[in-house]
Amino acid sequence: DTEVTQTPKHLVMGMTNKKSLKCEQHMGHRAMYWYKQKAKKPPELMFVYSYEKLSINESVPSRFSPECPNSSLLNLHLHALQPEDSALYLCASSQGADTQYFGPGTRLTVL
Amino acid sequence: GESVGLHLPTLSVQEGDNSIINCAYSNSASDYFIWYKQESGKGPQFIIDIRSNMDKRQGQRVTVLLNKTVKHLSLQIAATQPGDSAVYFCAETPDQNFVFGPGTRLSVLP
After folding, report:
1. Does residue B33 sit at the A interface (CB-CB below 8 Å)?
2. Which of B43, B96, B102 sits opposite A97 (nearest CB)?
3. Any idea of the CA torsion for A10, A28, A74, B95, to the nearest 10 degrees?
């Protein structure tokens, strides 16, 4: 099973809302990632968790807050977002520095 | 920072023809390379990978070639089918931090 699942598939939120994106994998991978992808652009790395600890934060604004409750789950908490944060948010997992398997993404629209 | 780039942003090929998608990388320390396919509304899907100690790797209808001398990576798709229409990204990594190229949109003409 090489599946990474993400919920919700679509999310519309206002700039004062608080919402969370969820990601789950059951491949036993120890690294999990959040990427942001704007239209017609490649994915941009936001965060990396390795063994449930945040190992990379690519200078992401604090209105994005990641959380890794356990080795299978990864959350991204959103608060006070801006319209320019609208994008496809992708979760991925890997076994170390190896192939990353991506989920289908959450399409986020900030009004 | 260093980045991975592509020579062509779009590529149109006739159904049944072979496709070649190119990628240039700049980080000589990169030792692992991946090609991803991304269809509209979906996440990137792994196609094939290659390590820096190899020059060529073949999969089902796809071949990846690595030329370390000129830092060039290519993806060859044999007998291109309508289902191959998508954006193709190359990615490199010297460590856990993947760097994606800008992508090439492949359109398959009937």
Report:
1. no
2. B96
3. -100
